[in-house]
Design goal:
- This protein has about 170 residues and is α+β, with helices and mostly antiparallel strands.
- It has two domains: about 90 residues; about 35 residues.
- Helices cover about 40% and strands about 35% of the residues.
- A six-stranded antiparallel beta barrel has the order 1-2-3-6-5-4.
- Strand 4 and strand 5 form a beta hairpin.
- The radius of gyration is 30 Å and the shape is flat.
């Protein structure tokens, strides 16, 4: 009897072990999305000069301040349901992400922890600037419109080419 109980317990452990490993794998992976594009967007001004000590130097007439527009990288991450516009939190050590690659992410309040499995697999934090749901119907209609528009343009170009060939063929020899 003791051997039978031990065998049953061992079988229960063998059956339960793979299912718990699969559950752990599911917890490790977050949502997946595709990095569609990167843009440089204005996100503030860099100022150098005496603007901070203005009261002392302003009294003697020194008012020169250099200001340059600061640009930040902003990415579009698209999932099946949502589009996320994100910016890196660490603006001093910005790492460029590979556009067109897939990334895994988890959302925590207004922050996104993003990891690119194809690259260095390091998780980095990004600030979520905007979120909007993906409208599949509108995208499909616009794609259909664009494709018919391209076909119409191609047909018009072909007709123009045919006309010029006929005109050249119908010219009298000189």
């Amino acid at each position: 009897m003791k051997v039978g109980t031990a065998v049953i317990a061992a079988l229960a452990l063998v059956i339960a072990a793979p299912s718990s490993a699969a559950a752990k794998d599911k917890k490790k992976h977050g949502q997946r999305g595709m990095l569609e594009s990167m843009q440089s967007v204005p996100c503030g001004l860099k100022e150098r000069g005496v603007s901070g000590i203005g009261s002392i130097f302003g009294s003697i007439g020194v008012q020169h301040v250099n200001s340059n527009e600061k640009l930040c990288t902003q990415y579009l991450l698209r999932t099946d349901e949502m589009e996320y516009h994100i910016r890196p939190l660490d603006t001093k050590h910005v790492v460029l992400l590979p556009v067109g690659h897939e990334g895994e992410f988890k959302l925590k309040k207004d922050r996104m922890v993003l990891r690119i499995p194809d690259e260095d697999k390091k998780a980095r934090e990004y600030q979520v600037i905007a979120m909007q749901p993906v409208n599949h119907e509108a995208r499909d209609e616009s794609a259909t419109y664009r494709s018919t528009e391209r076909h119409d343009e191609a047909r018009a170009t072909e007709k123009q080419a045919d006309r010029t060939e006929k005109e050249i063929a119908n010219r009298p020899p000189e």
